[in-house]
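Supplementary Note 3. Input sequence used for the single-chain structure prediction.
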Amino acid sequence: MSIVKVIEVIASSEKSFDDAVKNAVAEVSKTIHNIDSIYVKDMKVHVKDDKISSYGVICKVSFRVD
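The predicted structure, written as discrete structure tokens, is reproduced below.
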């Protein structure tokens, strides 16, 4: 029987939401193995001088426990 654990992480990017999710996967995979899926729970942008300055995502990361 497999046990799956879920953690929540926040990641950002100056390029796009897609890049923010990729950054989340890259950072989490440094210490977490057996990642099964990423669920994007929420998205937001930061605005500076009437322009988007960064994209942020809140993700739930599911992974199998050894």
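Residues 23 and 38 are 12 Å apart (CA to CA). The radius of gyration is 14 Å.
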